[in-house]
Amino acid sequence: MRLAAVDLGASSGRVMAGTVGPGVLSVAEMHRFPNGGVRVAHAGGSTLHWDILGLYRELLTGVQAAHKAGALNGLGIDSWAVDYGLLDASGALLGNPVNYRDARTEGVAERVLESVPARELFDVTGLQQLPFNTLYQLLAERDLSAAETMLLIPDLLNYWLTGVRCAERTNASTTQLYDVRSREWAVDLATRVGIPPRLLPPLRDPGTVVGTLLPDLAAELALPELPVVAVGSHDTASAVVGVPAEPGTNSAYISSGTWSLVGLELDEPELGDAALAANFTNEGGVDGTIRFLRNVMGLWVLSESLRTWEAQGTPVALPSVLAQAAEVPALSAVVDIDAPVFLPPGDMPSRIRQACAETGQRVPATPGEIVRCVLDSLALAYRRTVRQASELTGRPVDVVHVVGGGVRNELLCQLTADACGVPVLAGPVEAAALGNVLVQARALGADLPDLAAMRALIRDTHELRRYEPSGREADWARAAARIDPKVVA
């Protein structure tokens, strides 16, 4: 079976061709393209958008290339969460989707919490409080009167492919408009905060066929009328399918990319007061699982640092600067990588230096020192989050699986093992694409009855790398206390 997996990230997108069969699982990149925010000026200032039509064009180019390389049997799309397009009654897009890093939601969450307490919001949705949650973005819209339907990014692209408007549950669960217990839209909550329930489309489980390519589109592209499958359309949901955990093991996962998603896979949501206070989230996973996790800033800070140096006329090659970072003494300087100052685009090296100065640490000067600070700080955030997830659920963690692009960063993988104090199993890099392909394959008839079977196939066909912790636990505890004096080792 040959399948196209469209995997869209905040920095880049790609179309992968996956092959699935008995004892066979592979993916190959057919087309890669850049992604990112496009800032557009208007009378009131400016807005950061996504180039959704450009993404759609690249998606079609990639699917055509995949089919030319070998006949396809299906297609599935995953992407980042929370962002959406609004359609009018005719199905026309009302405007380019706004990028979640845009400042339009400033102050919106605070206004909502005045009428709906955080405890109540969490009890219904199970979601981490993030300023860019879909609920807050919709309330930041200037006018919803012409909008008939809200479609999250993968659902919008699926609609253009098939003509079917629906929402896949794993991504819907990230909106803060989804009831984590009933697995349906939280219509009462939407009405209470002023969001018209008409915007919320019918829900579909991951692993269901949305429809087939529209006949005119298929003819135009010289493609068959392929089935389009609703996969775990939040890229982290697909990536967690691709975590090759052994059944019965006490494992945590880190899906490492522009964002790092750090957590555990559960059967039921964890909605206690401690989880609320720790700002954890309960997002839907494939086969009714719960992704109990917290967003960590991720490799965004590193990529923005590289972009800043290039813009300043002093470009730095990633392999070179990682080698320099490996020579910098461990934990020389650390920052709270999740601090709001690191969320928007901008001059990350200056922000890192300022944060170090404000906490009385030696200020990193060279690119190698700054990158080492970023990686040490990321590993500290992983340590904190893995330990909190374990404490909140009462589940020990004996191994951490790292999947996604961060697998290629060997220094970060080793630092993660050192910081967490348990072995790290790194791989596969293409976990999201593999998870996407596996869910498609099952929907189209492959003998993959459950997540255990899917993960066994990954373990049988992909090599993992193991990193052992260094045993320097006290050093990491002291470093954690530098940025949070309340931390307990």
TrEMBL record:
Belongs to the FGGY kinase family. Pfam families: FGGY_C, FGGY_N. Residues 252-443 form the Carbohydrate kinase FGGY C-terminal domain. InterPro entries: ATPase_NBD, FGGY_C, FGGY_N, Rhamnulokinase. Keywords: ATP-binding, Disulfide bond, Kinase, Nucleotide-binding, Rhamnose metabolism, Transferase. GO terms for molecular function: ATP binding; glycerol kinase activity; rhamnulokinase activity. It comes from the Bacteria. The keyword Protease does not apply. The lineage of its organism: Bacteria, Bacillati, Actinomycetota, Actinomycetes, Pseudonocardiales. Residues 68-242 form the Carbohydrate kinase FGGY N-terminal domain. This is Rhamnulokinase. GO terms for cellular component: cytosol. GO terms for biological process: glycerol metabolic process; rhamnose catabolic process.
